[in-house]
Structure formats: C-alpha cells, structure tokens
Specification:
alpha+beta; 2 domains; five-stranded antiparallel β-sheet; 33% strand; transmembrane; Ice-binding_C; membrane
Length: 219
C-alpha cells in the first residue's frame, strides 16, 4: 500500500507542474545569425528561433557619386543588432522588429540599448510596440527613456518591461540610430499542464486511507 501511495503522489506532482518557459539571451558573443531576407532599406536575420528585421541606410553615399553606398555598421552581430535611420529611399526612423520563426507569442523581460547618435538636446525615448497578428496590442507604445549622448547605454528589466508580454512581435524605434546590445526573451506559449480532478481526489483518498491504516497499526 505504501509503495502505491508514493507512486500516485509522485505522478500527481509531475502532472501538476508547469511546462518550463524557454529563455533565450542574445548578444553574448556566441549566437550565429543567418540572413533570410534583404530589401532596399532593411534586412532580416534568423537566430535561435527568432527573427530580427532592422532598418539600414543602404543607399546613402553622402553626396559623393563614387562612394560605396550604405552607411558603416558600428555594432555588428553578434555584439548587437543596429538600426539606422533611412535617409535615401523611403525615409524612415531607425527600427528593429523582433518575432519568432514559428509565430508564437513571447515576452521581453530585459533589454539593453546603445545610442549611436546624441539625443541629449531634444530628449528621446525608445518606443516599443507589442504586436499581435500585425495589430498594436496597446493604444500607445511602451516608452523607455533614451535621453543621452552617443555611445550611452540604457538597460531595462522587470518591472519596467512588465508590459512587454504576450505579443508575437515587438517593434523598437527611436529617432536617432541605436543598437540593441542585450536581450532576454521568454517563450510565453507554454501553458500549465492541467491535472484531472479525479486524480487529485484519488490521491487525497489514498493519503487518508494511509492515515487510517497507520492509526489501526498503532492501536
């Protein structure tokens, strides 16, 4: 009887657990990236199950006709991922969009960003837009202070990132060039494993029965 009780209790504990969420950290220096798409003003790479789409000023020549088009990349992978303001072609501010290859939802629990130009005069904020099926999850972007000077670094974690949850894509933007140099992502698609009510009742009954047996043996 004792061995059966222990078996049921062990099974109950195993089934009542929650599937472990997969945590992925980027820009530790060991991540390999694969280019999956290249456009006139952006590129998309894949790494560890995630996609990064970032803007690049590829057609910029600085007004010199013989110059090699495109601006110099200051933060190459795997040190980070750099976003550049697009000044030639369809003009746009620097942006980085992160999503999963499988399209599942995920959370951003922490990130570190580096300014590649000064925002100290006018002030600035990293704007992060969580997306679900291409639609904004919130009415307004989630803002993080980015007022500083070139090469200044900003790091954010919990509870500041508490709104960066349950989306299938996140779009980062700023009005000056920047790079993400640290990133912690958590797969939010895992769900708790339900335990049938009958199993709990059965396990509870066995515990009670064991108590009765022990009591009889001692009397």
């Amino acid at each position: 009887m004792k061995s059966k009780i222990l078996f049921i209790l062990s099974l109950t504990v195993l089934l009542s657990g929650t599937a472990n969420a997969a945590t992925t950290s980027f820009f530790t220096g060991s991540e390999v990236a694969t280019l999956v798409a290249s456009g006139a003003t952006s590129d998309t790479i894949s790494s560890n199950g995630y996609l990064f789409t970032y803007t690049r000023d590829k057609l910029f020549t600085g007004g010199v006709s013989t110059a090699e088009p495109g601006r110099y990349v200051r933060v190459p992978w795997p040190d980070g991922v750099e976003a550049q303001a697009v000044t030639v072609g369809p003009v746009s501010k620097p942006q980085i969009t992160i999503s999963r290859v499988d399209g599942n939802v995920f959370d951003i629990t922490a990130f570190t960003a580096k300014l590649l130009a000064s925002s100290g005069g006018a002030g600035g904020a990293f704007e992060v837009v969580p997306l679900i099926n291409g639609e904004d999850k919130y009415k307004d972007p989630v803002a993080f202070n980015a007022t500083g000077y070139t090469n200044q670094i900003f790091s954010y974690g919990s509870p500041s990132t508490s709104l960066l949850t349950g989306a299938d894509a996140y779009k980062f933007s700023l009005y000056v060039d920047f790079a993400l140099t640290g990133l912690t992502l958590v797969d939010a698609s895992t769900t708790p494993v339900p335990v049938p009510a009958a199993l709990w009742l059965f396990g509870t009954g066995l515990i009670g029965l064991a108590g009765v047996i022990r009591k009889r043996k001692t009397t």
